[in-house]
Amino acid sequence: MNALRPDSRPLYAQTEAILMRRIAEGFWAPGSMIPPEPDLAAELGVSPGTVRKALGGLERRRLIERRQGRGTFVAAHTSERALFHFFRITALDGQRRAPTSHVLECATVAASAEEAQPLGLAAGAALHRVKRARLIAGAACILERIWLPEARFPGFALPVGREMTDELYVLYQRDHGVTIARAEERLAAIAAAPDDAGLLGLEEGAPLLEIARIAFDLQDRPVERRVTLLDTAAHRYIANLD
Amino acid sequence: MNALRPDSRPLYAQTEAILMRRIAEGFWAPGSMIPPEPDLAAELGVSPGTVRKALGGLERRRLIERRQGRGTFVAAHTSERALFHFFRITALDGQRRAPTSHVLECATVAASAEEAQPLGLAAGAALHRVKRARLIAGAACILERIWLPEARFPGFALPVGREMTDELYVLYQRDHGVTIARAEERLAAIAAAPDDAGLLGLEEGAPLLEIARIAFDLQDRPVERRVTLLDTAAHRYIANLD
DNA sequence: AAGTGGTCTAGACCACCGT
DNA sequence: CGGTGGTCTAGACCACTTT
């Protein structure tokens, strides 16, 4: 029948946890269809209504997509999705445009204490470190530094000096099985350092928007740190409060 | 039975709209209890499950609060709620502290074209204009300019020069029947103007985080514009992406 | 004890999609 | 057409709060 019961959480929450685990472990691959609701209900020994409520939770967290008449699918990190949910920068008129990337540096190093801490690693752990510039409509307005734990991204490397249009989160999922589920950002205004100012074509000391992000995977473990510097002469960071 | 049917939306959505309308129009006052689910179902001629789904939608949008064993209540803008949902500034250690306010200017003026546009008003419409400083833990780190349409806030005024601890959104709801349901923010980094720098105890040209907000009421009409300038020496703006 | 929202079930029927 | 998710119903029972 079901092995769920000796757990104090509601049945639908336990069901959601089981399904979520299957997605996280790759039992159902990104993009693939999961069984119909009645099948899941029978397999897990709960009523269809309970499965429905569980799927509703996964859908709200964007782990699955349900399409009437077609089925329910494990969410895949498409460029559109990454762009829409995880890229909060628009032009002044509110237009969202896909940026391109130009990798400046990509290296694997031993983490300093300061680098290790935000990712929950021990000092000295292997870390990939990336620096890149991003262009929107041809203008370099973003500088980005990214840190990735080697343990989660074995052999990670990006081609230095080449133009990239793919979103990194699509690549993380496709090449390393890491799905970014959510992120926390802390914003500040800073004065541009000389080298960063040069890369962005600004005066030293020009105001820049600094966006410090920690991104988490499906199990809510921190898997990426990135610090973005944005020239807000022609762009804005947007947020919705509700 | 029910007057809902000749509408293509699902029953639960129509039910949600009816209940939402009652809240927006003040038929049920903020803080008051609304009838039990079975009563609503009987009154509206739908099943209890449909009412439940409608209430679920209102709860997600934080228009109501449901408490098991007690009842369902129209959400009131408490200071805690305003602080938690609409105040995204924390200290560097992540601590959230309630700011106090010091009103510098409060006047009623005719809107310029630039002031009228974001609020969807005609140029020349009456507008309340407020400028205030906000202190966190005794330190002045925030400057704020606020614009309110006179039509929605008749007779609005704040005491200049006195310390305020109440959140404005609590006051909007209590004194003017305006409930803020959501807000959009656009962020940029700017260089401090001479007078603003003076008020914050900074050098002219110091980087400041500019937060431009439009706040919307229950019917999704823009009712407040505010521009916040934050000194990010000791504070951060936080955002969650999911 | 009475009254409230929360959970869980079972089933009918609708709307949409692909073949 | 068969299969999928979406809607709607009706009712039993549980957990919590107040009297």
Automatic annotation (TrEMBL), chains A, B:
CDD domains, alphabetically? Answer: WHTH_GntR
Task: Quote one Gene Ontology molecular function term.
Answer: DNA-binding transcription factor activity
Question: Do you know which PANTHER family this protein is assigned to?
Answer: MANNOSYL-D-GLYCERATE TRANSPORT/METABOLISM SYSTEM REPRESSOR MNGR-RELATED, MANNOSYL-D-GLYCERATE TRANSPORT_METABOLISM SYSTEM REPRESSOR MNGR-RELATED
Q: Name one GO biological process term.
A: negative regulation of DNA-templated transcription
The molecule here is called GntR family transcriptional regulator
Which keywords does the record carry? DNA-binding, Transcription, Transcription regulation
How far does the signal peptide extend, from start to end residue?
A: none
Presence of keyword DNA repair: no
InterPro entries from the entry? Bact_HTH_transcr_reg (IPR050679), Chorismate_lyase_/UTRA_dom_sf (IPR028978), Tscrpt_reg_HTH_GntR (IPR000524), UTRA (IPR011663), WH-like_DNA-bd_sf (IPR036388), WH_DNA-bd_sf (IPR036390)
**Pfam families noted in UniProt:** GntR, UTRA
Q: Does the keyword Amino-acid biosynthesis apply?
A: no
Task: Show where the HTH gntR-type domain sits.
Answer: 9-77
